[in-house]
Task: inverse folding
């Protein structure tokens, strides 16, 4: 366990705002986590790669950084393979390792920043796949008691960019490992238009897993700002999901809005479309702005403050609500919560 005091969080979060943390604790083992929980209890704030968090003021409570490494194959029946990853493993490195080893199911989630331990929190998703597709179970330590718990898929309440960890268990646990079940013969998902175009342009009619993995990486590199160059936390807002009835009401004011029917009968619309229609795409105000290629991504070019992003996000959300009656809910975790 390593302790650091009066640390700037700029290098630890992908928005790169220069807010300070009074005390940062790096934990590399489960025993370290148990020890830290027994010492600091529920006052801990957990940080993985800092790619889904907006810090708007100095953090006084102890920040626990999960740097638990390691991966192990725990089951292999010839087709299905269970792999357990330490919570501090890089998500993208984990996906790359799986693809390299011919294990399928998570290839559409290539190049998502952050750690494996954070992936179940918002049930990360991209290009038609969510991590729950392969999720088996995770292990966590309860902050209040230091008790170790195993939690299976059925208890995680995974939803669209959502889970029990964002709700009932929010801020109360430290995930220490996650186990996924991959398949050597898992079907590929090339349903998203950008993936299909990428494959068509290269005349790849019968893609393999590595083709899809390469496609996703290339598409993302061309479309999204690299947090190493421009501070951002990916999509700032969730895509709104509404009932069919609400969708009809919205559609009457938002002619041409794209939509997708979800498995539960509700309708998903792209938040970026509404933000774009309200004229925000490419907006810039000093160090803060909206990315010119993707209206869902708010950016920080250096020297700004987290609260400026929060103010911009509020202005965007209220303009969308005033024009379309659509609520945009932040996907990014905001600290302190309001
Ligand atoms: P952090 O930002 O460090 O933490 C996020 C939340 O999880 C915080 O509330 C934190 O307290 C909690 N947390 C983190 N680790 C643990 C743990 N071990 N135990 C308990 N709680 C924990 N997301 C998608 O879903 N799909 C995408 O396609 C996608 N693309 C992105 C692209 C870019 C360029 C960026 C910057 C972000 C993108 N994201 C995407 C968002 C983000 O990468 C994911 O949400 C990622 O899982 C966050 O991981 P992290 O380790 O950085 O978490
Ligand atoms: P896109 O392909 O331009 O699509 C725009 C939106 O339409 C997406 O939000 C997507 O919803 C939805 N969509 C497109 N095709 C769909 C289909 N066939 N079925 C259902 N929904 C469809 O999106 P993009 O901005 O370039 O992002 C590509 C993927 O990466 C998306 O899945 C997106 O969620 C993910 N991504 C996420 C983040 C993040 O921080 N959360 C950041 C960047 C990219 P979904 O978002 O539900 O897929």
Result:
């Amino acid at each position: 366990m390593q302790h650091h005091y009066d640390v700037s969080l700029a290098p630890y979060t992908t928005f790169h705002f220069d807010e300070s943390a009074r005390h940062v604790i790096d934990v590399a083992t489960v025993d370290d986590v148990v020890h830290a929980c027994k010492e600091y209890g529920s006052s801990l704030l957990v940080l993985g790669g800092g790619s889904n968090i907006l810090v708007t003021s100095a953090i006084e409570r102890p920040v626990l950084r999960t740097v638990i490494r390691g991966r192990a194959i725990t089951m292999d029946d010839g087709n299905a393979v269970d792999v357990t990853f330490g919570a501090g493993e890089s998500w993208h490195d984990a996906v790359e390792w799986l693809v390299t080893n011919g294990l399928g199911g998570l290839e559409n989630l290539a190049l998502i920043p952050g750690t494996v331990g954070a992936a179940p929190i918002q049930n990360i998703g991209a290009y038609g796949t969510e991590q729950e597709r392969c999720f088996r179970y995770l292990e966590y330590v309860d902050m209040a008691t230091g008790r170790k718990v195993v939690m299976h898929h059925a208890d995680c309440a995974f939803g669209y960019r959502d889970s029990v960890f964002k709700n009932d268990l929010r801020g109360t646990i430290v995930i220490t490992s996650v186990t996924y079940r991959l398949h050597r013969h898992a079907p590929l998902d090339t349903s998203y238009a950008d993936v299909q175009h990428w494959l068509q342009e290269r005349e790849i009619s019968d893609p393999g897993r590595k083709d899809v993995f390469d496609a996703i990486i290339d598409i993302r590199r061309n479309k999204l700002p690299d947090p190493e160059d421009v501070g951002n936390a990916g999509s700032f807002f969730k895509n709104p999901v509404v009932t069919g009835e609400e969708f009809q009401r919205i559609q009457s004011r938002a002619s041409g809005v794209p939509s997708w029917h979800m498995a539960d009968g509700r309708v998903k619309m792209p938040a970026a479309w509404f933000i774009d229609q309200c004229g925000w795409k490419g907006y810039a105000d000093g160090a803060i702005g909206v990315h010119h290629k993707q209206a869902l991504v708010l950016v920080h070019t250096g020297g700004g403050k987290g609260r400026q992003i929060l103010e911009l996000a509020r202005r965007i959300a209220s303009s969308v609500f005033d024009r379309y009656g659509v609520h945009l809910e932040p996907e990014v975790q905001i600290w302190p919560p309001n």
User: Anything to note?
Assistant: Helices lie at 30-40, 91-100, 193-201, 209-223, 244-253, 271-277, 306-324. The chain has three domains: 2-66, 71-183, 231-335. Residues 2-66 form a domain with the Uridine Diphospho-n-acetylenolpyruvylglucosamine Reductase; domain 2 fold (CATH 3.30.43.10). Residues 38 and 146 are 5 Å apart (CA to CA).
